[in-house]
Structures are given as C-alpha cells and as structure tokens.
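[User]
Protein folding is very new to me. Any chance you could explain this protein sequence and its structure tokens? I have pasted everything here:
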Amino acid sequence: MWAGILHHVTGVHEWALGACHHGPLSENRDKDWIQKGSVAHDALNEVVLDERWLREVVKFLGFRSTAEFESFHNHILMYASKRFSFTPPVYSARTLLAGLDYNYHVHRPVQRKSDGSIGYGKVFNKKSRKWSLYTMKVDKDYAYIPDLQKAILRSRTTAHKGMPRQRTLRPDDPRQLGVLCGVPPPSTEELLKTHISRGQSKEVISVDLILFL
C-alpha cells in the first residue's frame, strides 16, 4: 500500500495490485498531477522504494508517544513522593488515589479569559534555562470525593467486624525478603565480639595518650 503513492500522484487510483482508499476526488484541481517518468516522479520513486527506508518504515508505523505515561507517572509523585518511604499497602492506596484523580480530571476544558481567549501559563525550565507556555485548564473540583467517602463508610458499616490492628503480610510482600544487602549477616555473637574489641582498642589508645602526656 505504501508504494501506491507512486500511482496516486500520477492520477491513477486503481492498479493491478490495489487501489486508493480515499473517496471521490474533485475534478477541479488547482495542481496538476505528476507525470509518470518525469524528474519529480523519479525522485519520489527513489524515496518511496528506498531499501533502507522500507526496512525501517515498520518502526515508524508502530510508533507511539509515551507522553501520557510520563504525565501520569509525574502525577503519582504528587501522592507518593520519592522523598518518603511507604509500606506497600500505603503506596498501593496512594497510587489508586492518584489514578482516580488523573482519570477524573485529565479531560478538563481549557481555561478561558473574560474575552473568550485561551489562558496560558509560563514555566521556566532549569535545564534549558528557557521560558515556555502551557495551556491552563479549569480548576479541579474533586467531585468524586463524596462518593468515595460514602463507599468507604458503607463498606465499614456493612463489614460486621473491626479493622485489624496488625495486618498479615501477603506472600508477595517485598518485606518478606528482609534486608536486600547481598551479604549474609554474621551472627550476633560475632558482631558483639567485634563491637567489644573496637571499644577496648579505643580505651588502650586513650590510656597511651594519657601516659604520654
């Protein structure tokens, strides 16, 4: 289908191995079709049928932007900052709250001024040391919070049991693995001997200094 553009630009929309997918075209055109065999058509032919391009074009056809994922990951940091540590249940709950917030407000309309024009904000990039504009959206209303609170209250009142003070760790909880240091810990007795020997060496050094003085 990609090579079909060589037929389309010459005004031929049906050929032996396929046809164009567009609808009827207007007969009143401002531009002429490219003549087959002309310099322009030969140049286009070299680009379209280039062997290297035909090998690489598959990558471009499957290209997808990751901007939305990056935006969501930045949004998670508002609820679960990397500056703090959270237990797995707490981190899971914060991530769910971030997902609710993001999905509810992601399609907010743009903010408009009194004259109807779009409102813009300015942001400074420390890395490039340049200012740029971004489109401002209407403020968040968090209208889903009352429904969430009702669901939590309903769940607690219908549970018929209290909340456990200690929660049993799940089998896949990373805290089950303990400290991931890569070095097996020595026994308490060995550490105690090392601790005592260090303390004794300091005492010997302090006594020698006193005698020297």
User: Anything to note?
Assistant: The radius of gyration is 34 Å.
